[in-house]
Amino acid sequence: MAKRKESSTNSENRNYITTCDLTYAVCLVGGRWKLLILCKLEKGKLRFGELRNQICNITERMLTLQLRELERDGMVKRTVYAEVPPRVEYELTEISLKLVPIWGLISNWGAEHRETMLQKNTAEAENLIEQE
Amino acid sequence: MAKRKESSTNSENRNYITTCDLTYAVCLVGGRWKLLILCKLEKGKLRFGELRNQICNITERMLTLQLRELERDGMVKRTVYAEVPPRVEYELTEISLKLVPIWGLISNWGAEHRETMLQKNTAEAENLIEQE
DNA sequence: TAGGGTACTAACAAAAAAGTAAGTAATGGC
DNA sequence: GCCATTACTTACTTTTTTGTTAGTACCCTA
Predict the structure, then answer these.
(1) So what's the pLDDT on residue A5?
(2) Touching check for B71 and chain A: CB below 8 Å?
(3) Which of A39, A105, A120 is the closest to B74 by Cβ?
(4) pLDDT tens for each residue of A6-40
(5) Are A105 and A85 contained in the same domain?
(6) Angstrom distance (rounded) from CA A97 to CA A41
(7) Which residues get their CB within 7 angstroms of nucleic chain C?
(8) Do B65 and B111 lie in a common domain?
(9) Alpha-carbon torsion A119, A125, A131, B1, what sign?
(10) Closest CA to B54 of B63, B19, A127
């Protein structure tokens, strides 16, 4: 159905690393826009155009690609309404909903990490000035 | 110190997406081999060569690159011993240690997701056979 | 009949990530 | 002097991901 290529070391390695459940899980949301999309869907269903407007720098092509992969991987559900103009809604699935609380934990950790790095860099900058 | 390029849409978007704490956090471990490396270090310090041997498909170049980024981002600590031949040890930092329990949760979720997808694909395959 | 809205798709180009192969420095032991 | 060991570099190629631009189908409304 989809194009495949399994011979390069590159793709062999992709397979190898995803034998680790943790790496596998992180790869599922590894596309540039995926987590942003999923976060928007946390609050409920959204249409294609709503997602596009809420993620201001994404192109339609990238949004489509990321949504297709998320759908293929069971992370979002896509519902097409037979209307004109077309209406398509996206929502989280049973399994992706289970990640929501974990995203909260990671997000908090991320904020803390950002804080830490900021302080570290400030301290280093001050040391540099002192050395002059 | 390091080469930079800030003008492409590509890198502008990188900056944009990492304003989200969740995306930021996931990007920190987004390199192909990073989580594998971090997992190996969960059990304690390891030397460069030990990491290379435990992650059988990684090249020295990739291991070096990933470790450098992890170090830059405060995720691993690097200790060089002034010996010949050289000895370098890597270990988790205070902040990356805080992620360990979260990795456990994600890992469990990953295993569950894998299970789910397996069943889904089996079911689809059976439907295809019936249709023939 | 021309234009509008929605959710895409296709062909192509640019950028980034990953992989290959062949080095390097330092020094202890033979 | 020569080789082995360790933890890397460097120069280059390949593969993958991301971005740009210009379409498409559908039917409704003016």
Answers:
(1) 37
(2) no
(3) A120
(4) 458 999 999 999 999 999 999 999 999 999 999 99
(5) no
(6) 10
(7) A 9-10, 13, 47-49, 60-61, 64, 67-68, 78, 80, 84-88; B 5, 8, 10-11, 31-33, 58-62, 84-86
(8) no
(9) positive
(10) B63
Per DSSP, the residues of B43-96 read TS-EEHHHHHHHSTT--HHHHHHHHHHHHHTTSEEEEEE--SS-EEEEEE-HHH
| Alpha-carbon span A25 to A91, nearest angstrom | 19
Question: Would B16 be classed as within a structural domain?
Answer: no
The upper half-sphere exposure of residue A128, i.e. CA atoms within 13 Å in the direction of its Cβ, equals 6
Q: Does B20 map to a domain?
A: no
pTM (predicted TM-score) = 0.91
- Check pLDDT > 80 for residue B2: no
Most A CBs within 10 Å: which of B21, B34, B61, B76, as the mutation test of the A interface? B21
pLDDT in tens, A27-81: 999 999 999 999 999 999 999 999 999 999 999 999 999 999 999 999 999 999 9
Tell me: cis bond preceding B85? Omega within 30 of 0 counts: yes
